[in-house]
Structures are given as structure tokens and as C-alpha cells.
Amino acid sequence: MDNPTKLTLLPYGPPPSTPESQEKCRELLIYCDADTGRFHDRSWKNPARFSLPPGVKSREYDPLERFLEHALRLVVLKDPNLSAIVALTHTCPLNRVVIQARQRIVAALPSLAKALWVIYVDFQLDPNFEESARKLGNFDPPDLDLKQVPYWKDRTFNQSYLVLTPFTKDGAYIRLRARMLAARTVAALDREASSTTLRAVKDRNSRP
Fold it and tell me: Rounded to the nearest 10 degrees, how much is the dihedral formed by the CA atoms of 65, 106, 131, 183?
């Protein structure tokens, strides 16, 4: 099966803890079929690159807003058939920077609904990630160690993520898990679209 490389977006930029963690994150994403030639991983913390809304101070401006300001200019992200990875490198607080962030990003960029969504857990920044994740969602398999590439699904929107850590090592297994989740995500959205279309047809045909 052909698996072309994917445009890769890091809305929060690279992991901020150490250069080693940044390099590890990049390495793991390459195993997930990331296209290193289309790797949007700059930091969004530099206010000089962006126009702040009137009355908003730079320290108050959400980096995700800066990312979206940039991403909305990318013509490629308007392609409904886009093959992409979205890697979230901040995980705390999990509800705001992962679960709610995904909703904001997809609302602004619908093509990313079919993306492979990845959580990169930097334990130096978030040592309590697993505890938070179990409170807000479920791992698949439930007893899998974090370094063994589990999926995680939040309970709010039932969205799935591939979980990677600095201790994840098996490149072939990462690639397998990434491709399985990517295929599952696309298939689920296609089924949902088909169901919506069928309901619309039935409603139209049932009208007098």
C-alpha cells in the first residue's frame, strides 16, 4: 500500500524543553511518514512576526492564534484531500491545549479533520500526563505502557491521538500504529459523511 509522506504541522512549535527532545520528536514524526520538506515546526512565541489584535499585549496572545494566523495563509491546507500530521507538543492543561485546541484548529481548517493527530509527551514539562489522560479519556490498549505507542481517545469528542514520548524507540512499530490510526480516522469520517448524505436523501424523498 502506498503511503506518501505527509505535510506536518506543530501548532505549538517544537518541544521547548531540550534540543534532544526536539530532535527526538522530529525523528518519531518521520517514522509517522512526516515530510521533512513540508515541516511547519517554528515557534509561535515571537510576537514580532505577527499583528496582535488591538489592545492585546504579546504575553496575553495565545500561540495557537498565531499558528492559525499563519496556517490560514497556506493554500495547501484548503485541499480537502490533504494528507497531514498535526503534532501537539504541549499537553498541560490537557483539556485546553489538546482537546479544545483540536476543535479550534479543525473549525478553522476543516481539511485537518482527516489528519493523523499526534501527542508528543515531554515528561520534563508534564510528568503527570498519564494521570490527566486517564481522567479525560482512555488508552487503547488500556494497559499499554506509554512508550509502546498507545492510542488515546478523549471522552468529550471521542477523538483519537497517537501518543509518542522520548522513550519510544521501535520505528517500524510506530509507522504501523500511525498508518493504522490514519486509516481508521479517514474511514470513520467517510462513513459519517456517507450517513449524512443518506439521511439527507431520505429526508428529501420523504417530502410530499
Answer: -140
CA dihedral of 19, 21, 23, 27, whole degrees rounded to 10: 180
Do the Cβ atoms of 25 and 164 come closer than 8 Å?
yes
User: What is the reported pTM?
Assistant: 0.86
Report how far residue 169's alpha carbon sits from residue 148's, in angstroms, rounded to the nearest whole number.
8
What is the per-residue pLDDT across 45-103, written as a single tens digit (0 to 9) for each?
544 444 444 554 544 557 888 899 889 999 999 998 999 999 999 999 999 999 999 99
Residue 89: other Cβ atoms inside 10 A: 23
Q: Which residue has the cell 534532544?
A: 20
At 100 the three-state DSSP class reads helix
Separation between Cα atoms, residue 29 and residue 87, nearest integer Å: 8
**Which residue, among 181, 158, 159, 177, has the nearest Cα to 169 in the 3D structure?**
177
Residue 115 CA to residue 188 CA, distance in Å, equals 12
Q: How far apart are CA 181 and CA 160, in angstroms?
A: 8
Q: Rounded to 10 degrees, what is the CA torsion of 124, 130, 131, 135?
A: 140
The Cα-based distances of 54 to 21, 48, 51, 61, 72 in angstroms read: 36, 15, 9, 11, 20
Cis peptide before 141 (omega within 30 of 0): yes
Domains of the chain, by residue range, sit at: 6-206
